[in-house]
Amino acid sequence: MIVNFLFSHYTYRRMTILILGAQGNLGTQLAKLLAAEYNVVAWDRDDLDVLDFKLLAAKIKELSPELVINAAAYNNVDKCEDKTEYEMALKLNRDLPAKLADLCLALGAVLIHYSSDYVFNGTPEKMEFLEDDTPNPINKYGESKFLGEREVLRRFEEGLSGYLIRTSKLFGPRGTSPQAKPSFFDIMLDLAQNKKELIVVNEELSCFTYTPDLAEASKRLWELEVPFGTYHLVNEGACTWHDGVQELFRLKKMKVVMRAVRSENLARAARRPKFSVLKNTKVRKLRPWKLALKEYLEN
Ligand SMILES: NC(=O)c1ccc[n+]([C@@H]2O[C@H](COP(=O)([O-])OP(=O)(O)OC[C@H]3O[C@@H](n4cnc5c(N)ncnc54)[C@H](OP(=O)(O)O)[C@@H]3O)[C@@H](O)[C@H]2O)c1
Question: By C-alpha distance, which of 47, 44, 50, 51 is closest to 23?
Fold first, then answer.
């Protein structure tokens, strides 16, 4: 009888996963992947303003999810240099993960939070970063993500169960939010239709990451009960933006005139790290970025 009850309980109760930023580029892929197996509750701006912390706390407590995935963020790297925008970035990138970490700690839920390679700033002598390397951001966006990391890491020390996942240069299908940005490769394909020559930065060495691969690898961390902590999840192989576009046009068999420039030659408000290659030394590596790009283009 007891065995029967336990068995039916185990079989029929699907775990609840809450995704914030569920219509963003990564959030859309996470929701799509996880909904096949779990009870996924997917919130975006239409469902609630995640910065309304009182409402957020009440709704999360009521839902009592086993896993909370935070894919909401402030991601406009250049705008973030502006003082008012930076205040918004701090709310989304620092205060939100802090609040979620507190809530997950109290509920005994696992938290997955995403950070960025822009917390690092490499040199030709140190181009690659391991999970435990010390961040040193050089722009306001990187600073806001670093401050968010610190909040999550502090809660880890207090007993929070979770994964802090750094990633970089996301690409993939556009999120379902009307505000979702097209990925870099889609912008390049679009520009190639209208421009005689494309100007592309041949610096800023880091790793492209295909959002469906990142969603899958994030799911795996949680399902395999990999020890909680900091992880780097990126497609394998470091390259510049120029390398990426060259491969894009090679795969599409398009002849496009490109001019390689240095970072300084593009007028952008925020400085970018010249080297911010994330090394994944802890878990199964994701496939090489060229294979992921090929699949993306075929689909
Ligand atoms: N994109 C990259 O290349 C990259 C690189 C490194 C790390 N990351 C990190 O990866 C994660 C996912 O990035 P992403 O590119 O998928 O982000 P994204 O497409 O910008 O999605 C963020 C989502 O958060 C929602 N959101 C923002 N403010 C909100 C609010 N106040 N209330 C409710 N929802 C709100 C957005 O809604 P709206 O669409 O309505 O604004 C959007 O759906 C982030 O942590 C990001 O920092 C991204």
Answer: 44
Q: What is the pLDDT of residues 249-259, one digit of tens each?
A: 999 999 999 99
Ligand 1, atom nearest to 50 Cα: 32
Best CA proximity match to 250, nearest among 206, 199, 197, 188: 188
Kindly state if the Cβ of 73 falls inside 6 Å of ligand 1: yes
Q: Where are the domains of the chain?
A: 16-298
Q: What pLDDT band is residue 14 in, cutting at 50, 70 and 90?
A: confident
C-beta of 173 in contact with ligand 1 (< 6 A): no
> For a pLDDT cut of 70, what percent of the chain falls above it?
96
pTM above 0.85, yes or no: yes
- Distances, alpha carbon 230 to alpha carbons 16, 150, 202, in Å: 23, 11, 29
CA 7-8-10 angle, to 5 degrees, is 65
Strands 206-207 and 238-239: antiparallel
Residue 60 to residues 49, 66, 164, Cα–Cα distance (Å)? 13, 11, 20
166 lines ligand 1 (CB under 6 A): no
Q: Establish whether residue 28 lines the binding site of ligand 1, counting it when its CB lies within 6 angstroms of any ligand atom.
A: no
| 101 and 153 Cβ atoms separated by less than 8 Å | no
Q: Give the homologous superfamily in CATH for domain 16-298.
A: NAD(P)-binding Rossmann-like Domain (3.40.50.720)
Distance of CA 229 to the CA centre of its chain: 16
Residue nearest to atom 45 of ligand 1 (CA): 114
Residue 112 has pLDDT above 50, yes or no: yes
pLDDT of 203-242, one tens digit each? Answer: 999 999 999 999 999 999 999 999 999 999 999 999 999 9
Surface-to-core class of residue 233, CB atoms within 10 Å of its CB (0-12 exposed, 13-18 middle, 19+ buried): buried
Closest residue CA from atom 43 of ligand 1:
24
